[in-house]
Amino acid sequence: MSNLPPHILKAFEAVVGPDNVSDEDFVVNCHDWMGLGADPSTRTLLGKAPAAVVMPGSTEEVAGVVKVCNQYKLKFKAHSTGYGNYSGVGTKGSISIDLCRMKGLEIDPESRMAIIQPYTTAGELVSEAHKHQLMCHIIGAGPIHSPLASATSFVGVGVAGNHTSINSRNMLSLEWVTPEGEIVRIGSSGSDAGWFTGEGPGPGFRGMIRGLYGAAGGLGVFTKIGIKLYPWAGPKTLEWSGPHPYRGTPPPENFATYQLDWDNWEDATKATQMMKNSKAVAFINRMPPAAVGHCLTATNREYYDLQRTGKLPDIATKANAVGWSVTTMAWTKAQFDWNEAVLNKILAETNGRKMDISERERDILTAAVLTSHYVARFNRMGDCAGVSMGVLDSINLIPEVVKRTNDDIGDKETKAGGKMMEVDTEQNWMWLSEGRHFWTENNPASTRSFVKNIVACVDFILSSFISNEKKPLGAALFVHGEASDLFGPKLGHPNKWMRKVKNTWDPNNLSDSKHFIQPEAAKESKAWPIAKKIFFHPWGKPIFRKILTKEFGKDDPK
Amino acid sequence: MINDAFPLPKFVTFENATIAKEFLGVSTENSLKVQGIARPEDEQQVQQLVQWANEHEVTLVPLSSPSGNRRHGLAGLKDAPFVVLDMSKMSRVIHADGEDAIAIIEPGVTFPEFDAQLQKHNLRSIKPFLPRASKSVLACYLEREPTTLPNEHWDSTDPLASLSLTMGSGESFRTGGAALYEDLDEALKNGARQMMASGPIGTDYTRVMLGSQGTLGVTSWASIYCQRIPSIEQGFLYGAEDVTTLISIVRHLALHQLGAQYFMLSRVQLAAALAKDSTHFAELHQLFGKDAMPAWYLYVNIASRDVLPEESMQWQLADLSSLVDTLPVTTISQQYPSYLAELEARLSTPSKEFYKDVPCGTHTEVFCITQMSKVANLVNLAQNLLADLSDVQVGFYLQPMIQGTNCHLDISLFHTDEQTTQLADIEMQLVKVLADNGGFFSRPYGKWSEDAFARNETIVPHLRRVKDIFDPAGILSPGKLCY
Amino acid sequence: MSLEDRIHNMEQCNRCSQCKFVHMPKSQEFSSICPSKYQSRFHASSAGGQVISAYGYHNKLIEASPKMIDSVFACSMCGACETMCKSHMGDNVEPFDTILEFRAQLAEDGKVPETLSNMVKHLEQEGAPHGKRDERSRWAEGLDIKDARKETVDVLLHIGSGQAYSEKQWDNLRFIVKLLKSAKVDFGIAYDSESDSGGLAYEIGYRSVADKLAQEWADLVQKSQAKTLLAISAEAYSAFKNVYPRLNKTLSSVRVLHTTEYFEELLQQGKLSLGMKNTGKVAYHDSCRLGRRSEEYTPWNGEYIRVLNTMAVTDTPRKVNYGNDGNYDAPRQLLSRVDGLDMVELERTRQYSFCCGGCTGVKETYPEMADGAAQELLREAESVGAEVLVSGSSCCQANMAAAAKRSNSSVKVAYLFDLLADSIQEGA
Questions:
Q1: Which GO terms describe its molecular function (chain C) (predicted)?
Q2: Beta-bridge partner residues of B173
Q3: Which CATH number fits domain B229-273+288-346: 2.120.10.30, 3.30.390.10, 3.40.30.10, 3.30.70.2190?
Q4: pTM
Q5: Do B202 and A273 touch (CB under 8 A)?
Q6: Residues 413 through 432 of chain A touching chain B, CB cutoff 8 Å
Q7: CATH 3.40.50 describes domain C132-269
Q8: Which residues in chain C land under pLDDT 70?
């Protein structure tokens, strides 16, 4: 049991009902579980469990819970589907506001949008949207994530982005419970006009509380949004092929999926510009070959056996080092034929080719891009991802981005004996976005279980941020939390403005996220400009790794 | 006139109130308390000027278009002295990239100037419906004016991407991709194109600035998405008696992602769009009646794709026909090709005079955004409300936005100067009727804002906090919105 | 196997929540896969939550409070979580195996709800969770069935405690006997020497009781010289295939079949035929014990090693269960043979089926949980327009039928053989 005084528990119970509050150890520890790379540590239970888990069933109840938190100066953090530890509270003893009772979903097909609450999953949304010739954006976490959480609070990118954008841009009107417990509707819903736009009257206020990265729970609780949906020319219910978990999606009528390949990224980039400008390809996504291998296999052992015996299909090896998985979508046979002809012409003009893939491989690649289902298999091969840069800039930067990621990782870490997973290409996940620009993140797999691996990941992440500072190739998106103070100065000091926002709307610093700016800059940030020069100099690196090893070693039970 | 006590900035061209009023398009007798006009020529001067204004507690009203009616720019301002911040001298097209379809421009660039530059890169600007030739491109986008390319309108910030800003506090800030490099030339040299609107990190101030009517910050340059010029394009003008028939085509265009430009007009609005002058408008109006032209029109432009363009036209046209052929619509572009040709000429080449002022000399307008499912009802309600108006022609312009998620409803009352005052009441009645029935005034100008903020009082204190953060001394455009 | 042996797997859970949801739902309404999380709502009730609780308990970071014990044992052990977890995580986590070890540890520590521990005591003493040993075969009185303890039989029937002691189910049992006789099958039963399979005791966590019951039955099967072990209860069928290998009990001398499989064989061989039946629209519910939990389990005692610098893999290849090899087709084929039967599929079928919540003592211990899960299934049946919801498990049927009565559902719940009763005929 937590140390929360009974009268406070009673106060929460008065808002949400006694069945919806728990301070039991086994309940609160479930909100303290290490998920992904959010809090690098060798530990799984992180030792910062919330004091209680409270489950409101309505916006009014959320506001009531937040007001109780304000009354007793308790920190709190919203929790939707809870994928990974980004949803965990930042501080031991906070209140985890679990929004699982709020799962409203309403499709408005005529306006190509839906109205959703926090516990509506992307899988649910897309399945309902398909019934109306629509689909939603699904981020890499897959169908089990909360689109509301991704739209309001956290990044929001996904492999289908060329057709379905980014969830922060897909968000329309929104409902927000401020850190002080006031219910505010932003955009058209604020005037009871519906949920179709988030801007106005006047300035786009939501830009204050939802930036590129999102406040990740550091600025109150979001309870309902309008979200934009996208055209879907496929069937009302997605067809699946193959046995679980090798299930794939056969491309529906007038759809086609290919794995395309080029000799070099220069040719591939030329082709990418052509594909983008022709609009013949709806989904353009690149999983690094090792990730393709994990999508196609059910277990790590299966992947390993194929890898060591040289039996991995070509698309899961360096034979597919330079290429895209593409899926075309058409409403008519004539459009489908044109898509095919365009693709063939582009390949012919850019020395590209379609790789031979089996039906099963094709179906799994299709499922991966249409539902993001198998993107999460990335976590099967390594639970401590290093994530570096996101771009959203010119496609012409792709060759340089690939080179940069190779430079950042060095020539040892992903080779045999290195501290990250042994692979034969860089680990760039890339996709086109909005038919305009492209996104990339470099995700070399590693493991959280050993200090040396975490150290290598942290070193890699910071090194890539620093190299992107020297010559930016798009935004280093995963700069967030306290790192905002380290890397903000070179970006025109957004950290300064974010801090003003944090302190204005959360004056008591109760909205508890370590992934948003803190009310005051950490002392270390002042020393960072010098520390950076020392620790990321070739001579200083070993010292930096030693310090990190000592720091992470404190957590290491081994 | 500049008072002797008025502090003059030394670092920027500064001219007196008479010249300022000329710039504003008002007579010298006009009661506006304009103290002068400052004309910065670069970003540094803008910043110095804003800092100077903070220091001397001078109110600035930033305006970007080099000339023309400042209807929205001056609407709602407090009855207090101010200095015009004329951004029109900053009128460079800094960069354009045909492959990435993006350009960087300063606030004074107008559509004709912009298009002239873009053409060299096989690009053209994404325009709102018939802007006047002297309209600032950036001002249009900063005001979230709807454009006529709904399928390219992914989010309400489009087609704007990054901004280089001077906040009301005098501090500078760059949004989105523009934040990555301090030196724009270096950024461009390195291949960076400032394509991202949001960011950096936890900020999205492009979004905040849009719709703020110059109350929070001043933009010195911005990156703008453009349209690649298709090698083939074909326009269609369809007519129907019932607007819902055309709305069903619009839904198809949005769902199948067909067409480049598309929008709907009422018969009067079409006449206004085509009219060369008031006489021509009257003739067209009469002619449309005589020819029993339909009540509603949909313009759609089918544009070829970059690869296999002829073939891309074939399937797009076939897809469009598969729906249109089943509906009670008239292909006006076939019956009266000259109307289509004239409309397209006007769409591509802005006129000197704003088209709404052509029919009768001036106009009263009310516009809001709503959903495709609600817009026909709003049109109906507006028609009922305005049915008894005599000597005033009423036109409707319906612009699908954000890929069909929203629809801009624009109602114009074409009238003479003398009628302006008597229409003030009906204007506000119209605002109320629309807002009561699902119309949202996301861009509330002048007195509309009272109604708009009365309907969402909870947002007001939060918007005031925004003002306190970006413009703590309140020197930018006081009186507008809820400030 | 112990909780200690599961640490690697527990630490692999990245709390993705796939264990709560169908692999790819067809609608929002029926997207849940975990009956206990669906109802309690706390993450702790999900498989991921139980893994965390188990980890915390093992590491003495979490006390076994009464509420935690309730949360653990309100789970019907349907195994859906494990099947779903494997959508992404392969055999990295296998939460079901951790939950089994967690329960075993709690049982060892005396932390089991009284209702369940009493059931296990009864199992130990009487061979059944309810009822007396000398009443086990009352249902067979006057049927003149061969006594497999005394005579050799081709087919040995295992009745299961649920049906043996429930007079309501006796007609079904007698019907099955009638069919076997019609098809001239040489079969027998073990009368009062039949015990519960041991599956229930194993799942509650009492390994030694489970071991004893399983050994007794395995010995009896061996002695009977039967070639086929015919399980009437889905729970026993699941135990023979999925639990016995975990207990190192072998039934290798016999084919283990469920009645649905066996009668489908008889129909294929022309020893029986099906006639006409007008029942209205019928939906078949894949009972978890007949479905994903009946997949043959293959023990593996290897270790995890690091390869490719960082990736954990099993040191030797192992067979991983994905829920694909459950008994899904035979019941459907049986139903499809009935003329005039209008079949419709539920949204969640086969390995993605939603459990009715009645098993593993949940119905007895947490009746509201069992009712809630069953009500969800009735709604699912209604949503696809089914008038009859058919189950191949009498336990599921009883739970769902009671729920239908409580909620006045328009859906009738039927046991598969009850539905077939007046349709099935002798000979081809």
A1: oxidoreductase activity
A2: B165
A3: 3.30.70.2190
A4: 0.97
A5: no
A6: none
A7: yes
A8: 426-428
